[in-house]
Amino acid sequence: MKFLFWFSVLIITYTYLGYPLIIHLLSLFYKKPLKGKYIYPTVSILMSVHNEEENIEEKILSLLSVDYPEERVEILIGSDGSTDKTDEIISKYINGRVKLFKQPHRQGKPSMLNILAREARSELLVFTDARQSLDKDALKELVKHFADPRVGSVSAELHFKGGEKKTGSGVGLYWEYEKFIRERESRMGSMLGATGALYAIKRELFPELPKDLILDDMYIPMTIVQRGYRAIFDPKSILYDRYPKSAKEEFLRKTRTLAGNFQLFTQMRWLFNPLKSPVAWQMFSHKFLRLVVPFLLVAIFITNFYILENNFYRITLILQIIFYALASLGFVIKRPNPLLDVPRMFCVMNAAALVGLYRFLMRKQDVMWERGR
User: Fold this and answer.
1) pLDDT per residue over 118-154, tens digit each?
2) Calpha distance 256→324 (Å, rounded)
3) Which tens digit of pLDDT belongs to each residue from 153-197?
4) Which end of the chain is more exposed for a tag (fewer CB within 10 A), N or C?
5) If DSSP codes are grouped into helix, strand and coil, which group holds residue 365?
């Protein structure tokens, strides 16, 4: 029992503290500099939408206002079976720069992105979503790194705005932690995936996407890494999003993401092979072990009951109970409070991993994204 207890503690500690510390130290001494400079290649911005009447006009205006030569940007919007006023709103902006492609029946984001990528005529493809707005310099900062021929994918940095709502402090702290790791991975070579709300690739590197794919923002950059290019993170390319409106919305998003991770592990097994993958260690430490943590947490809690032989183990059990009690209070108390929101977010993340595994195994995670209401 003691072995299982301490083995679980060791793996969790390595996953959340050891790996970030090691990757940080390595990035200080072993880093691959970039040859970035301001360039203005032609850019095709691709956006797949479904029933986005609430966000689409603001997003189009955001894209049209970026600081980039107008004649070098085209905006291709795919309406994937929208049944609200999305198509009507987009139609107001259709011109030489903005183009609308409609599917009468919803097929899913991967199918729509395949269509848009075939229609694109530019040197670079930029992927974005409907909800987030771009900083005016986001596009030129994003594409400048393609001056380096080794770069195949560049990811932007997501900032949250609008004040900390109920889910704000937990999500915000988690995202800062995640960005820290991504930036260090990028310095050393390649990050794992991209910020789905805004990332760019060389057009010739776009892979045909499986129709049932859940995470295009990981699948596309990883296929590019497989071909010998870098997938990097640029903190100067900024876009803005709101905090999740509820814990349910954040839980649904994480469940989908983690179910997508399980899918990718089966589709891209080469990622874990050090002989074939330059990111094998990162993939194992950053992605795989996090999906194992929920089981280890259960193991720690249960085994702790069997080893209450001295005060140390009694204290560890009490601390666990207090931690989960604080997480539970975090779901009840409506005001932001880091003391409650951080444990709550930690539990949401790990519960989402379990639900994501169930959805993947039972094939219950639909490729269609539905918002939490």
Assistant:
1) 999 999 999 999 989 999 999 999 999 998 999 999 9
2) 24
3) 999 999 887 655 544 556 677 888 889 999 999 998 899 989 889
4) C
5) coil
| Residue keyed to tokens 């280890």 | 296
Residue 135 is classified by DSSP as -
Q: What is the pTM of this model?
A: 0.89
What is the percent of the chain where pLDDT is above 70?
93
> Could you tell me which of 301, 299, 160 has the C-alpha nearest to residue 242?
160
Angle CA 286–245–60, to nearest 5: 85
Who contacts 262 (Cβ-Cβ below 8 Å, separation ≥6)? 291, 356, 357, 360, 361
Per-residue model confidence (pLDDT) at position 166? 46
Strands 230-242 and 133-134: antiparallel
Is the four-CA dihedral 36, 41, 180, 65 of positive or negative sign?
positive
Q: How wide is the angle at C-alpha 58 spanned by C-alphas 99 and 164, nearest 5°?
A: 140
Contact 217, 164 (CB under 8 A): no
* Alpha-carbon span 156 to 170, nearest angstrom: 21
Element (H or E) spanning 224, and its range? helix 216-226
Give, for 239, the enclosing helix (H) or strand (E): strand 230-242
Q: Which residues in the chain show pLDDT less than 70?
A: 36, 162-171, 245-247, 334, 364-373
Q: Are 252 and 212 in contact (CB under 8 A)?
A: no
Taking a C-beta distance cutoff of 8 angstroms, is the pair 247, 346 a contact? no
Distance CA 284, CA 233 (A): 19
The superfamily CATH assigns to domain 43-245 is: Spore Coat Polysaccharide Biosynthesis Protein SpsA; Chain A (3.90.550.10)
For residue 71, what are its two tokens?
């004649």
Query: How far is it, in rounded angstroms, from Cα 355 to Cα 84?
Result: 31
Task: Give 163: exposed, middle or buried? Use CB within 10 Å, 0-12, 13-18, 19+.
Answer: exposed
In the prediction, which pLDDT does 88 show?
A: 94
